């Protein structure tokens, strides 16, 4: 049986009660209009081959992920649904027993809790959409990305 | 008081009980890995100035929206959170009492139920992310887009 995932509203209610949240649940952002040029968003350098920018809504997070050729994202999983859209370059994924190369103009939808690994076959600009927003990326507790 | 929005799991449970769903709630897709090149996705022509492609996950939908210069999206609102990322061109939005031009490389996060109108100032490629997926786009009941 899969573990029931936390609902996005749970974080706010739990915090209001002073309950410590599991590390995978992000505090829900306020519902507000946000106009954000990407060039005003912090470009976070996770390791010499990997940079990232985040725009976080209430229940959606969009990340621009910049991977240099040869960058490896080690196998990991998360309770967040993921939809990857490759804007430039190509990523090879190992997921669900398959090897899939996702190229510019292609998408990959990865269900929650499905382990996956990726490697950049070229310098790549990857747009990753998550629901709910990823607490580990927001809180910078994503150690699996910060090693080489 | 804002009307409580339907939760995404509600659709499946309601359908299992034979309950007729409101038109804004999409049937939840199965949790499956999907590898989708955009050039294999149906390009739907909504009107002579507006085309659209959809990739639908469980709780996330991503749409590539192609707008010709002068295309107007009339004011509307929806219970789905929206995050717009302009890949090419420029859209002018009327939203929350403001006029905001969102250009290539910029994003706009629109909270659920916030009315908005848009006009393409140039030929535009717009990536729209929604949570939950938009039933009116999936079911083709989005008449507001099908008129000129």
Offer a few descriptive terms.
homodimer; 148 residues; mainly beta; Jelly Rolls; six-stranded antiparallel sheet; four-stranded antiparallel sheet; 2 helices; 11 strands; 9% helix; globular
What does this structure look like?
The structure is a homodimer of 148-residue chains. Chain A is mainly β and 148 residues long. Chain A has a single domain (8-145), classed as Jelly Rolls. The first copy, chain A, is built from 2 helices and 11 strands, in the order H-E-E-E-E-E-E-E-E-E-E-E-H. The first copy, chain A, has helices spanning 8-16, 135-138, and strands at 34-37, 44-47, 50-56, 61-67, 72-76, 81-88, 90-95, 98-103, 106-110, 116-120, 124-131. Chain A has a 6-stranded antiparallel beta sheet, with no helix packed on it. Chain A has a 4-stranded antiparallel beta sheet with strand order 5-10-7-8, with no helix packed on it. In chain A, strand 2 (44-47) and strand 3 (50-56) form a beta hairpin. The longest helix of chain A has 9 residues, at 8-16. The radius of gyration of chain A is 16 Å and the shape is globular. Chain A starts with 7 loop residues before the first helix and ends in a 10-residue tail after the last helix. The model of chain A has no long low-confidence stretch (mean pLDDT 88). The interface between A and B is large, with 39 and 39 residues. Strand 9 (106-110) of chain A pairs antiparallel with strand 1 of chain B, so a sheet runs across the interface.
